[in-house]
Amino acid sequence: MIPAAKMDDLAAAYVEALRKFVADPSEENLARGYELGRRALGGGQALIEWAALHEAAQADLALGPTDGERFSRAGTFFRESLAAFEMTQRGYVEANRWLERLNHQLRDEVTEKQRVAARLEEANRDLESFSYSVAHDLRAPVRRIEGFADMLIDDHRQGMTDEAVATAARIKAAALRMSELIDGLISLARTSRSELTIGTVDLAARARAIIAALRDSSPERTVTVDIAEPLQAKGDARLLGAVLDNLLGNAWKFTGKQPNARIEMGVDRTKTPSVYFVRDNGSGFNPAQAHRLFGVFQRLHTEEAFPGTGIGLATVERIIRRHGGRVWAEGAVGHGATFFFTVEPEPT
Ligand SMILES: Nc1ncnc2c1ncn2[C@@H]1O[C@H](COP(=O)(O)OP(=O)(O)O)[C@@H](O)[C@H]1O
Ligand SMILES: [Mg+2]
């Protein structure tokens, strides 16, 4: 709203301009109407009040319908002053239409995205429970293969050649390996099924405990370990523990042939969200194959060089994804590897 004094000025200017235009309907005098209209609008003047002001100005100049030509000029002047209001009004309408269109578009996109996400989640759930039950169903027959291979070796040894015994032993080893893979699949499915319990997790304490257990398991190795302190993260303690189990376990394993093994764990808090990392100076991997790292049963090293099932990083990826974070790796053959992860979504 225009302050009263300013409004009075505006009203006086309007009367003056209107008087001039009525006397001399030139373009220049008409332009004054538009300019005053704009000033009124800029000051927050409402249309209805502007109309009242025009009426008062007409009264001031003692202009009535009986004044013919002069009265109609006053009308022209008023309409000119309204042009500013009109254009703004049109702008509002356009902007509103545009906003509405944008909103519609957004709503469509969002619902489409939600639909796709829901379908994807459903498909994933189906796939997960499928692999869970398949894995369970496979367990029994694989155990029986193992058992029968045992029977051959133990109970029928007499009637068998050495070669036959060796073959039976190979069958047993393959069945054992399959059992391991099945157990891996089941534990992977479990990670995706359990509920998240979010809290503050002391990653450093957890990492120290894991490293202590690894040292116990291979006391012959000397590995330098550097864990940043403090190292906390918001997340599910059990699941983040499993992430560290896998990443530190891998770092430990893939530095197995490195005489000066070194493992480092820390966080880069200058990034948003914070980026945690586990670095080692072990065998590394071919970066061109990095996209395979997190796939189920995908391994970039042979079983002979470094034993394993290829389930660990797939588990890590699922846990991190469930936290809304991201996991990725950098490495080079013979130059170690660094695994990075976040536990929060990226800012949008
Ligand atoms: N720290 C590491 N250094 C080099 N390669 C690694 C490292 N961690 C994982 N990898 C590669 O990723 C593959 C998948 O890892 P993972 O799923 O933990 O399976 P696993 O440990 O059973 O081999 C590994 O077989 C290895 O080729
Ligand atoms: Mg592993």
Description:
The chain has about 350 residues and is an alpha+beta fold. Among the domains are: about 135-195; about 200-340, Histidine kinase-like ATPase, C-terminal domain (Heat Shock Protein 90). It is built from eight helices and seven strands; from the N terminus they run αααααβαββαββαββ. Strands 2-4-5-7-6 form a five-stranded mixed β-sheet. The protein has a two-stranded antiparallel sheet with strand order 1-3. A hairpin with a 6-residue loop joins β4 and β5 (about 275-280). α6 packs across α7. The longest helix is centred in the first third of the chain and has 87 residues, at about 70-155. The chain is elongated, with a radius of gyration of 39 Å. The chain starts with a helix and ends in a 7-residue tail after the last strand. About 25% of the residues are buried. The mean pLDDT is about 90. It binds adenosine-5'-diphosphate and magnesium ion. Magnesium ion (MG) binds near residues 246, 249, 250, 308 and 312.
